[in-house]
Amino acid sequence: MGSGRARRLRRLGRDTAVDQRIRFLDHAGHRVAYATLGAGPALLCDLGRLHHLDVFWRYPPYRRLVEALAQRFTVVRWDRPGCGLSERRAGDFTMDGELAIFDFLLDGLRLEELSVLAAGSSAPVMIAVAAERPERVTRLAVFGAWSRPRPESASYRGALDGLLRTRFSLAVDVLARSTGSGCAPGAIRWLAGAYRQVASGDVIAQWLTETVRMDVRHALGRVGCPTLVLHRRDDPSNDLQQARDVAAGIRDAVLLPIDGTEGVIWEGDIQAVVGPLIGFLAAGAEAEPAPAASGPGVTERERAVAELVALGLTNSDIADRLGIGRRTVESHLERLRAKLGLSSRAELAAWSSRNR
Q1: Domain extents for the chain?
Q2: Which residues are within 8 A (CB) of 210 and not within 5 positions of it... i.e. 6 or more apart?
Q3: Edge-to-edge order in the sheet of strand 21-27
Q4: How far apart are CA 152 and CA 60, in angstroms?
Q5: Of the options 3.40.50.1820, 3.30.365.10, 3.40.190.170, 3.30.428.10, the CATH number for the domain spanning 3-152+213-283
Q6: Does residue 142 contact residue 119 with C-beta atoms inside 8 Å?
Q7: The pTM is what?
Q8: Sign of torsion over alpha carbons 276, 277, 283, 288
Q9: What is the rounded distance in angstroms from the CA atom of residue 36 to the CA atom of residue 50?
Q10: Domain 300-354 has CATH 1.10.3720.10
């Protein structure tokens, strides 16, 4: 990263270290709201296309996730046209619309490239974006992703579409129970209340139409950036096979199943998500060195193993040096890769060098 770009990112995030500052950009005659938080390499945090910068920010579990990421990155979030604090007159959830708003946002912030974290309905969208804009997406992490329409999607959309236009409050209750499946009842109630403030019934109906028929299987093989696929093993609405298919279709993608049932990224065990995310995303970051740290949940023995990997030692050499068994070394390496979201010894060596 050049010094000018680094200064630009620090300027973007400096005044958001305590609380978000919301700004606006003009896009095709509409005002688009965006917010930044933190300092460091840019990370586009897209946790769902139905979003409201203020409403979601005031929900503690969501805010904790964003703040944790902002300890390492300049986190960029935004409300799509039709939603949240952006112009509410109309939305465009087609892939052409998504590509246009992605390019517009990066150009408006004068960012040539960045890493992307996408969850829920944003995950397949950003898979397609990474395939279409390989020069702009340096790393991609997705949570709860799918690549093809589900058999029941058409009937679900048909039933909910009419409700959204006639009985809006009931419709968002149904939508929240579907999106938040596996979450605690209180989290589902909050999500329903948030959806009531995000957009009109007509806009949500447009979102639903485009979301349930989204098919990005053709894009998987064209994603060239390092990719991490996170998924909670027992999510009742989106089974692990969907995530497996996504990871299998992207060259060298890493699939990381996480214990839990929550289909929403900020619910459940946040640290199980944050640790691997930061390790994976930071591995490709070109930025000023981060403060020395042992990593997310990394033990001293695991750190010692990582340092010997960075020196080029084999597993047998490491076992001899530390006086432990080779299988124990292998177990340490497996846990390290899972915690940090890394896929190779080279990435682990690079992580150890940065955090030595």
Answers
A1: 3-152+213-283, 300-354
A2: 93, 94
A3: 21-27, 30-37, 74-78, 42-46, 114-119, 137-143, 227-232, 254-258
A4: 33
A5: 3.40.50.1820
A6: yes
A7: 0.75
A8: negative
A9: 18
A10: no
Closest CA to 53 of 31, 27, 22, 82: 22
Q: How many CA atoms within 13 Å lie on the side-chain side of 246?
A: 33
Question: Token pair of 297, please?
Answer: 């949940």
Tokens for 98?
Answer: 């998504």
- Please state, in angstroms and as integers, the Cα–Cα distance from residue 126 to each residue in 158, 177, 219, following that order: 25, 24, 10
pLDDT tens figures, 34-72: 999 988 899 999 999 999 999 999 999 999 999 999 999
Spatial separation of the C-alpha atoms in residues 225 and 243, rounded to whole Å: 17
**Extended strands (E) in the chain:** 21-27, 30-37, 42-46, 74-78, 114-119, 137-143, 227-232, 254-258
Alpha carbon distance 216, 195 (integer Å): 26
Tokens 């939508």 locate to 175
Q: Cα–Cα distance between 246 and 214 in angstroms, integer?
A: 14
CA distances for 194 relative to 50, 100, 157, 301, angstroms = 9, 26, 20, 44
pLDDT score of 172 more than 70: yes
Q: CA-CA distances (angstroms) from residue 285 to 115, 242, 251, 279?
A: 8, 28, 20, 10
d(CA 120, CA 182): 14
Position 98 confidence tier, pLDDT thresholds 50, 70, 90:
very high
Alpha carbon 29 to its chain's center: 29
